[in-house]
Automatic annotation (TrEMBL), chain A:
Protein name: D-aspartate oxidase
Protein task: Selectively catalyzes the oxidative deamination of acidic amino acids. Suppresses the level of D-aspartate in the brain, an amino acid that can act as an agonist for glutamate receptors. Protects the organism from the toxicity of D-amino acids. May also function in the intestine.
Residues annotated as binding D-dopa: Y223, R278
Family to which the UniProt record says this protein belongs: Belongs to the DAMOX/DASOX family.
Gene: Ddo
TrEMBL record, chain B:
GO molecular function: D-amino-acid oxidase activity; FAD binding
Listed EC numbers: 1.4.3.3
Residues that coordinate or bind FAD: T44, S45, A49, G50, L51, V164, G312, G313, F314, G315, I316, T317
This protein's name: D-amino-acid oxidase
Binding residue positions for D-serine: Y228, R283, G313
A GO cellular component entry from the record: peroxisomal matrix
Organism annotation: Notiomystis cincta
Gene name of this polypeptide: Dao
Subcellular location: Cytoplasm, Cytosol; Peroxisome matrix; Presynaptic active zone; Secreted
GO terms under biological process: D-alanine catabolic process; D-serine catabolic process; L-proline catabolic process
């Protein structure tokens, strides 16, 4: 197969990073990104983009750790380069604080982020309701800049991007040789994955440029993540809730919770409310599948179900998915050469 | 009781506030007046980035270390108050970078979370092999000085836009105590060969993705003559100039190039940052801060002067400790003039 035609469905952080990985691992491929939404209207645009991993119950820890490490290493290099501001990648330091001492003293990612250590008594004084804390430095992927930068790199690599709602992966079988499914929550409908469920997250985006640190409550519900221009204040984790409209009562509650962690947020301006549905699953689905109808086959690589941890592992899962695309290509080339015999 | 404060930078205004807070209740006749050639936003304090950080070594000057600590603790106490934003006060973390191992600084236990840098962190800064990470405070002069001015105005303190040429000028006018907070211009009031300008220049840029301060050190060339990047609430300050004895307040193209090139080497993403301003100022440098009383005989009159100047590149860092010390000296003066019933607080 001279120039395999690869369609990547989905243009959030997973779709764009996977598409870019495919252009790099398979330079002879023609890559097309198809999505009904592009930045700034993807779920990724709502997220803060903090590199603080979510733990997937059914993915082996060593695999999650490798994904996080790959992602962190790749973004660390960008943050240190002249492209950092355009790519929206920057370092941020801060604290994760707990009201009661966590069962797990050292998260699996503590040696991947920078300078991880327990907070001192003096540092904890800033959080009178919390008894234990961890200080570290990590990375943040600001969106839309990061997604727009990925789009720019994709175009430079010769990839095409089209706004198109794909209602059935099979509809792509005549135009493309391989389909990569990065549709996040869309996979619930698109591939009928009942294991995929939304975890609704509402956030506020505010102007508070004096806030230079992230603060996260270990319960994962309240967090303050300073981005380039706005601070993301969160949040909620409403399992099974599909509602995309912002709820004013929730907004008020988020604001109050964040102000109790960081009182200076009372002075925040230009507050916007956003909602996203975390495409959640017990384990991330990075997997090959072959769809077939009437003797015709369509290789599919799935890369979805990242839930609350999309940004944290996107580089690692993109690598894996691109590798699986490579396997699909080999399989196609194998079968096409067999056909010639 | 009339008190004239000469100078309206961070030292003058904070000393005035400290004195008024402590003594106005005890001495209702206390009348405070601030005289200055320059007011915010045209003072040296306004040009400074506003980072709380003393020099690397206190040279055995324990008193200054205590004043630094007093200032840090005082500011930390205000961090969660509703006034913090208006004061220009917020927490900031960052890096101090060296090309060789150095002893820990006198202020390591004053700041929060002081630690050495890990090898991974040092990868961010090629050319530097050792460093510190800590959390400190920012106190932006452009906000803090107006806040101090408002507090003083509320208390009935009067301001006069006037360059005071001599102590006689104010004392002869019926002023009982003069607080000399004239910074780099103190030599105009009373010659002081120990006071010299430490000229600095800074470039102000828009780089809101930078969340940490980064201060490099070249032990051979001296403090602040190596690039530094300090992100504020509105813009980021790039600097790295310290020229002892240079009185020029004009921006120098050569210094601009040095700052720009060296900071962009430190943080390549700065190349894309938009320049929004440039400023030069004279740090009022002195081997030690002059904080002491002096009785000046002027003809038949005796004026009490409290000197509080020579804070170099750490004025914001040390200001409150010095203001409290100046207020103590004021208390002693009041006692001597038998204006106060009870004795002043413990003397440092």
């Amino acid at each position: 197969m001279a120039s395999p035609k690869v369609a990547v469905v989905g243009a959030g952080v997973i779709g764009l990073s996977t598409a870019l990985c495919v252009t790099e691992t398979c330079p002879s491929c023609s890559v097309t990104v198809l999505s009904d939404q592009f930045s700034p209207n993807t779920t990724s645009d709502v997220a803060a983009g903090m590199l603080i991993p979510h733990t997937y119950p059914d993915t082996p820890i060593h695999r999650q750790k490798q994904w996080f490490k790959d992602t962190f290493t790749y973004l660390f290099a960008i943050s240190n380069s002249a492209e950092a501001s355009e790519a929206g990648i920057h370092l941020v330091s801060g604290w994760q604080v707990f009201k009661s001492t966590p069962t797990e003293e050292l998260p699996f990612w503590s040696d991947i982020v920078l300078g991880f250590r327990p907070m001192s008594e003096a540092e904890l004084q800033k959080f009178p309701q919390h008894r234990f804390g961890q200080a570290f430095t990590t990375l943040k992927c600001d969106c839309p800049p990061y997604l727009l930068w990925l789009e720019k790199r994709l175009k430079a690599a010769g990839a095409q991007m089209y706004t198109r709602k794909v209602t059935d992966l099979w509809e792509l079988h005549s135009e493309y040789d391989i389909v990569v499914n990065c549709t996040g929550m869309g996979s619930h409908q698109l591939v009928g994955d009942e294991q995929l469920f939304p975890v609704r997250g509402q956030v506020l985006k505010a102007h508070a440029p004096w806030v230079k640190h992230f603060i996260r409550d270990g319960d994962g519900l309240t967090y303050i993540y300073p981005g380039i221009h706005r601070v993301t204040l969160g949040g909620t984790r409403e399992k099974g809730s599909w509602g995309l409209s912002p709820d004013p009562g929730t907004a008020r509650d988020i604001f109050d919770r964040c102000c109790s962690l960081e009182p200076s947020l009372q002075g925040a301006q230009d507050i916007e409310v956003k909602v996203g549905l975390r495409p959640s699953r017990q384990c991330v689905r990075v997997q090959r599948e072959v769809l077939s109808q009437g003797g015709v086959k369509l290789p599919v690589v799935h890369n979805y179900g990242h839930g609350a941890g999309g940004f944290s592992v996107h580089g690692g899962t993109a690598n894996e998915a691109a590798h699986l695309v490579g396997e699909c290509i080999s399989a196609l080339q194998g079968s096409s050469s067999r056909a010639k015999l | 009781m009339r008190v004239a404060v000469v100078g309206a930078g961070v030292i003058g205004l904070s000393s005035a506030l400290c004195i008024h807070e402590q003594f106005h209740g005890l001495l209702p006749s206390l009348q405070l007046e601030v005289y200055a050639e320059h007011f915010t936003p045209h003072t040296t304090s306004d040009g400074a980035a506003g980072l709380w950080q003393p020099y690397l070594s206190d040279h055995g000057n324990l008193q200054e270390t205590l004043w630094n600590k007093e200032t840090f603790d005082h500011l930390l106490g205000h961090l969660h108050s509703p006034a913090a934003k208006e004061m220009g006060l917020f927490l900031i973390s960052g890096y101090n970078l060296f090309t060789e191992p150095v002893p820990d600084p006198s202020w390591k236990n004053i700041v929060l979370g002081f630690r050495n840098l890990t090898p991974k962190e040092l990868e961010l800064f090629p050319g530097y092999s050792y460093g510190w990470f800590n959390t400190a405070l920012m106190l932006e002069g452009r906000s803090y000085l107006p806040w101090l001015t408002n507090r003083l105005t509320q208390r009935g303190v009067k301001f006069f836009h006037k360059k005071v040429e001599s102590f006689q000028e104010v004392s002869g006018d019926g002023v009982d105590v003069v607080l000399n907070c004239s910074g780099i211009r103190a030599g105009d009031l009373q010659p002081d060969p120990e006071l010299q300008p430490g000229r600095g220049q800074v470039i102000k840029v828009l780089a809101p993705w930078v969340k940490h301060f980064i201060i490099t050190h070249d032990l051979k060339s001296g403090i602040y003559s190596s690039p530094y990047v300090i992100p504020g609430s509105e813009f980021t300050v790039l600097g790295g100039i310290y020229q002892h004895g240079n009185w020029s307040e004009e921006n120098s193209a050569k210094d601009h190039k040095f700052i720009w090139d060296s900071c962009c080497r430190l943080l390549p993403a700065l190349q894309k940052a938009k320049i929004v301003g440039e400023w030069s100022g004279l740090r009022p440098a002195r081997p030690s801060v002059r904080l002491e009383r002096e009785s000046i005989r002027l003809g038949s009159l005796q004026a009490e002067v409290i000197h509080n100047y020579g804070h170099g590149g750490f004025g914001i860092t040390i200001h409150w400790g010095c203001a409290v010390a100046a207020a103590r000296l004021f208390g002693t003066i009041l006692q001597e003039k038998q204006q106060l019933g009870s004795p002043p607080g413990p003397r440092l």
